[in-house]
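User: Sequence in, structure out. Go.
Assistant: Echoing your sequence, followed by the structure tokens.
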Amino acid sequence: MKKLFLIILVSIFSIESFAQQVWVTSSQLSSRDQLIKLADIRRPEFQDIDLISWHEAQLAHPITREELTTLLQQEEKAKDLSLKGDFKGSLGLYLKLLGQLETLPNVAGIEKITFATLVRIAEISTVLKKQDAGSWWKQARGFVKNLNFKDQQFSPQVIEKLKSVKFKMNKIILTINTNPNDILYIDGRRIFCSQANCEVSVLPGIHLIAAISPGSQWVVQKINISESDKIPKISFLFEPVVTGDCDHPRYVGKQLPSKIKLLARFQGTVCERVYDGKKWYSTQKKPLEMYLPVTTSQFENFEAPTQKSWFQKMVRSPWFWIGAGLVTAGTVIAVKKSQESETVIVPTHTNK
């Protein structure tokens, strides 16, 4: 456990401040290299500001500090109730936590929270002698294909229980339609596909598929596969997070992290606009009056970032603590389809 915590500390201390960072994207889906080149363009208005590709930012930081804080608070409440002997209340909160996790991209360590939550639900269900306790142990075991039974984050009793789980089918094939620009994860495992129909082997149970295409936001799909299910094909319909045109831009992604701004270039033009999470501006910091109400506020935080100590940078980062969280058995842990059938299309956003 000490070694694990050292890894967490090294990971956190290496995180730099994102307080003055601007993410760069396009109003059309493109390739990873194209977005990196777009971010690398020299812009006098941004000479002292860190510009990074939207796509790279999403890969490195799939959830915000606010989202992570909500998860940790929910888990802490569930743990406290369990320690006080209120197992029914604790189980209810862990089930709620699982529901929240199923809406997030289970990548970069988030999948560890999900797995630990499944284990905790199985443990408490066993204590309460729930009829579905055995099913929850199967769900937990099936979520991790190659489980390390030497993992020190779980008690010996939990390890033995997971070892005892048996499936009638130890290999179920998912078929996922993808393209070369897409990045795909299943339960935190990066899946590399060399063809349009990507076949992935999984165990029965709950699985969370997270996918992203350059210029889009993360798309998450939950599937729950029993050993007798007909397995559907999975497809993703990606859309850019910025739509509209230079005069009427529209951001359709989820709320930007605090102190992060978005720079968008519009298709077929060299026109660029800046979004601060609430309003659009020109690159000269002027509000778009034709699209938004006139405002006297200026586009703040365009100035060069001030120098801060490494500790100040760490705690002020919107991504502080990503990679840490969740408790299992009282221990803090690190967070860091082949049959022919119907196709499930997963939208990337809902109209706002």
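User: And one key feature?
Assistant: Residues 1-19, 290-352 have pLDDT under 50 and may be disordered.
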